Automatic annotation (TrEMBL):
Species annotation: Aristolochia fimbriata (White veined hardy Dutchman's pipe vine)
Region (Disordered): 254-306
Matches recorded under InterPro entries: GT64, GT64_dom, Nucleotide-diphossugar_trans
UniProt name for this protein: Glycosyl transferase 64 domain-containing protein
GO molecular function, one term: glycosyltransferase activity
Biased composition (Basic and acidic residues): 254-283
PANTHER family xrefs: GLYCOSYLTRANSFERASE FAMILY PROTEIN 64 C3
Pfam families reported in the protein's UniProt record: Glyco_transf_64
Signal sequence annotation: 1-27
All residue ranges annotated as the Glycosyl transferase domain in the record: 56-270, 302-343
Keywords carried by this UniProt record: Disulfide bond, Signal, Transferase
GO cellular component entries: membrane
The keyword Disulfide bond is annotated on this UniProt entry: yes
Lineage, uppermost ranks: Eukaryota, Viridiplantae, Streptophyta, Embryophyta, Tracheophyta
Family as reported in the entry's similarity comment: Belongs to the glycosyltransferase 64 family.
Length: 364
């Protein structure tokens, strides 16, 4: 048995005590700093000390009903050898700290200062890598796909790299920008999963002066489009579009096409919507009161104004098209650029050969 006078005994005791404190700190749900503090570059780690061969995963969460799924996804990321840390960005202010601690131990949980979607891009002193994964809580990425996406990112570290493409386009008839999907090109990758340089957190939240402040306000007003704005920020920096990579085996639990096969997903979605409704109800009532006052003031024009308000709430895709138009108007230009094709993990020949009386890929 070790003697208490033995120096190694005291060293071992100190290490265990330190690890116990660290474990408690990691498991505790801590509030995120205010935006002003997040933008204090003196509080952020120096760029030259950041790990260039590792990733920090920032997972966004809101629904308590999906905490088991969030934990499963977080554990999956944490076992990957390229992942330095997994951190949870929690945006539901109604969730007790104890609930998060019990569900997400030992992961570091940041309680965002508000429900603003802009909060997912706050710079954080706890991020110690040059690259970050921005991901939703319902996206599960196989180890090989994560490794491949990071290898592609390392060849073009100033561009956004992701699995889920979308596009902007110009509706010539309406003379207006729209949000859409093209089969042959894309200009946006979604924050369902993307890899980007950590510097973009600062560019999004802290740089750009009044112009970026107004564009972040668009995100808050629409409660949408933070991913589109990040694509604007990156395209403005690089003059190039994002990079789409093939994600073999990537599972999207939030895809509506899961619903017929997974009733549990439907109940989770309903629970999440109920929580969101509880938070939004008061704000919506205030907005309706304000709209009602405006309609009365406008007299005969009130019916037309009401239709416009309903149209703005008419659908996700239209809302995102509205965001693109507003971003373009505020910025005074359209930085989004199209990319073409998809990077795939392999260089097999595509030629066909006759085998057994059938034409098949020659490499088979």
């Amino acid at each position: 048995m070790a003697s208490r006078s033995n120096p190694s005994f005291f060293f071992g005791t100190f290490v265990l005590f330190f690890l116990a404190l660290l474990s408690g700190a990691l498991a505790r749900a801590s509030p995120s700093p205010a935006v002003e503090d997040s933008c204090n570059s003196k509080l952020l780690p120096p760029p030259h000390l950041l790990h260039s061969n590792k990733l920090t995963v920032l997972l966004s969460g809101f629904s308590e009903a999906r905490l088991p799924l969030l934990r499963s996804v977080a554990v999956s990321y944490s076992t990957h050898p390229l992942v330095f840390s997994v951190q949870i960005l929690w945006s539901n202010p109604l969730t007790p700290n104890r609930t998060l601690t019990q569900a997400l131990r030992p992961f570091l949980v940041h309680r965002n200062p508000s429900t603003s979607l802009n909060s997912r891009f706050l710079p954080r002193p706890s991020v110690l890598t040059r690259a970050v994964v921005i991901a939703d809580d319902d996206i599960e990425v196989p180890s090989a796909s994560l490794s491949f996406a990071f290898s592609v990112f390392n060849t073009q570290p100033h561009r956004l790299v992701g699995f889920f493409p979308r596009s902007h386009d110009l509706d010539l008839a309406a003379k207006s920008w729209i949000y859409t999907v093209h089969p042959d090109r894309y200009s946006i990758v979604l924050t369902k999963f993307l890899i980007m340089g950590v510097e973009y957190l600062y560019r999004y939240s802290c740089d750009g002066g009044e112009t970026m402040r107004k564009m972040r306000e668009v995100v808050d007003m629409s409660r949408n489009c933070e991913d589109i704005l990040m694509n604007f920020v990156a395209a403005e920096r690089t003059g190039a579009g994002p990079v789409l990579v093939e994600g073999k085996g990537v599972r999207d639990y939030g895809d509506v096409r899961n619903q017929n096969r997974e009733k549990k997903q439907s109940s989770e979605r309903e629970a999440a919507e109920a929580q969101e409704e509880q938070l939004k109800q008061q704000r919506e009532e205030e907005e309706e009161e304000e709209e009602s006052k405006q309609e009365k003031d406008m007299g005969n024009a009130s019916g037309e104004m009401s239709l416009v308000g309903l149209s703005k709430r008419g659908g996700h895709w239209k809302t995102r098209g509205d965001c693109i138009r507003q971003f373009h108007k505020i910025l005074g230009k359209m930085p989004l650029r199209y990319s073409y094709g998809k990077v795939v993990p392999g260089t097999r020949e595509q030629s066909l050969c006759e085998k057994g009386g059938k034409l098949v890929v020659c490499d088979l």
